[in-house]
Amino acid sequence: MTSKQRAMLRSMANTMETILYVGKEGVTDGTVKEAYDALEARELIKCCVQQGAPVSAKEALAELCQRTGAEPIQCIGRRFVMYRPSKDNPRIVLE
């Protein structure tokens, strides 16, 4: 992925709502399944690590990307963005 593609995805994620939260249990199998399903449906998702979580945002991003096959896009504070093209219905076209 080029820096221009990453910048385009970052700008798209700017206005998105956070749809996935990593809580006090950390990154569980349920969290991974939710992330996988959300990536399949939306391709680009914004996530947040809550205050009492045992992992940092960077750790959660790395683990979720590795377990879902996604690409890390951005990590700022407790929020992070991931991207993975949909297998069935790709909507976002990277230039």
The low-confidence runs, each spanning 5 or more residues with pLDDT under 50, are none
- Side by side, the strands of the main sheet go 1-2-4-3
The first-to-last residue Cα distance is 10 Å
What class do helices, strands and sheet pairing give? alpha+beta
The whole-number mean of residue pLDDT values reads 93
H and E order: HEHEHEE
- The percent range for helix content is 25-40%
Number of strands: 4
Computed over alpha carbons, the radius of gyration is: 12 Å
Q: Give the strand content.
A: 15-25%
Shape: globular
Question: How many H/I helices?
Answer: 3
Main beta-sheet annotation: 4 strands, mixed
Descriptive keywords:
95 residues; alpha+beta; four-stranded mixed beta sheet; 3 helices; 39% helix
Question: How would you describe this structure to a colleague?
Answer:
The chain is an alpha+beta fold and 95 residues long. The chain contains three helices and four strands. Strands 1-2-4-3 form a four-stranded mixed beta sheet, sandwiched between helices. The longest helix is centred in the middle third of the chain and has 14 residues. It is globular, with a radius of gyration of 12 Å. 23% of the residues are buried. The model has no long low-confidence stretch (mean pLDDT 93).
